[in-house]
Amino acid sequence: MGADAAGIRALVLTVSDGVSAGARDDASGAAVSARLARLGYQVRRAAVPDEPEVIRSAVASAVLSGSRLIVCTGGTGLGPRDRTPEALLPFLDLVIPGFGEAMRAAGRRSTPLADLSRSFGGASGSALVVAIPGSPRGAIESLAAVEPMLGHALDTLAGRTQTHPEPNDAGSARPT
């Protein structure tokens, strides 16, 4: 079902003043990194403060260095320093609305407050950029919600459009 994660370089970027200053543990970055590694991605981690220019620069650097998947955890809420979407949106070539919709729908199973999340997905060139909440639980729930789409999104962004997952009679995906 889509790209094999093995060999695909990924960056987990924690957006947090506290984590980047070393004043707080990076629980969400650790959880997201572990999950992506289990899926077969080659994961690197970094942390930046909640500063739009710094966030954008870190993501641009990751794209230029060959990361195909960048997962930003943190800065998607309504707090005064939560500016990850504003930092990333001008950098992206396109936004993938279904990613945010899927993440919020999954989050509603745990909390009605999930609709306050500004999580989303988008693309810069052939790199997939996903912004998820900073709480470990919210981050993992959000990542799990889009995991089934990651491989196909990465394939499509890389120009591999010959196979498209479609439900068969049993409801599972199959190439066409």
Write a structural description.
The chain has one domain (9-174): MoaB/Mog-like domain (Molybdenum Cofactor Biosythetic Enzyme, Chain A, 3-Layer(aba) Sandwich). Helix content is 39%, strand content 21%. α2 packs across α6 (136-157). It is an alpha/beta fold and 176 residues long. It is globular.
Outline:
With 176 residues, this protein is an alpha/beta fold. Helices cover 39% and strands 21% of the residues.
Give the C-alpha Rg.
Answer: 15 Å
CATH class group: Alpha Beta
Q: What is the number of helices?
A: 6
* Mean pLDDT level: 92
Strand order in the largest sheet:
2-1-3-6-5-4
Portion of residues in beta strands equals 15-25%
Key terms:
single chain; 176 residues; alpha/beta; Molybdenum Cofactor Biosythetic Enzyme, Chain A; 6-stranded mixed beta sheet; two-stranded antiparallel ribbon; 8 strands; globular; disordered C terminus
